[in-house]
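Here is one chain, start to finish.
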Amino acid sequence: MFSWIKNLFSPRLYPMNIIHIHKKNILRNIEYLQSLQPNSFLFPVLKSNAYGHGIKQMVKILSKIDVPYVVVDSYPEYQIVKKYSNKQILIIGETLPDNYRKFDFSRTTFAVYNIQVLEALGKLGKRVRIHIFINTGMNREGVDNDTLTNFLEICQQYKNIEVEGVMSHLYGADGIELISDLDKEIGGEKTSVEKQVELFKKMYYQILEYGFAPLRRHIGNSAGLFKIKEDFFNARRPGLAMYGYNPLNLEDPLYTKGKELRPALSITSRIISLHEVWPGEGVSYGHTHRFQDREIVGTIPFGYAEGLSRLASSKILFTIGKKSVQQIGTICMNLCSFLADDRLEIGDEIEIISCNPKNKNTLMSLAEASQTIPYECLIRFEKGMRREII
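Its structure:
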């Protein structure tokens, strides 16, 4: 009550930079991804601040979507979901053993990667639901095939632990796989996805032999959604694809299926400065951009602290109205400049990232200019920036 009254009389802050989350595109992407695997559940992945889209905003968008879990990485992310949603939460990250007691076990399921975490949860004495994370080839984490028996024997000792699911992660589904002579010698003419699926099934049936009855089976990430069709897997974990970006390599035969996705994020800022410059002058640190003619330089309060990479300096475009403008000079911590004209005024809106794939200022173009992947560009966008659902 008091917080409502406080908000009522508090002055509204109008931010310069806004991340816009396009609700209809998120819902459209989910509907499309579900159509690819109609008999499978989707577990939306909201880790890393929902790939930069904002966990709070995403759980609001997902509020009326029937999903068994939303997936997060850490306790702070879990707290946000718990505050703004009543959905069940799958934690796929690890934490220190003493931290597990802080979770609400009635709403939380844990991915368990090793015996140490298993024992920490078992010793809590409370009913705990887990998904056994098995290592099928990524080799970062997970229960290995040769240690699974020991893991299961220890798991049997803890009657409070319910094995609700089995999961793993694909390491090569988003790339073009060329089967080498060595691959043929050790695994036959199979792709990495096929080999991982084969090992998953072998380990899953071993889990059944120990008396466990896991309800959920999932290995597919966004790329795996397009490549794994069999009904053995009854859940998928869409991340990048849910946010509207094609997870497949351009040369992949299935690439065109990802073209149905619609990016759900756009970013706008406001012009804070306009300067007239003359031939021979430059702009920003080092004057890496020098002018041949009389020009107008515009500046916006958006730099590498807000999410742009310095590697993208002078390589990206922004949009004002329907016109593209060139970003120029070194991108600074909280500022960057662009080629403006005499018609612009301080306070005018400028679009940094467009959600229209046909425009030249897309996230994918930023990723290319930054010499990185769209995942990294998305999570760079500053967490404290205003995010609005539209």
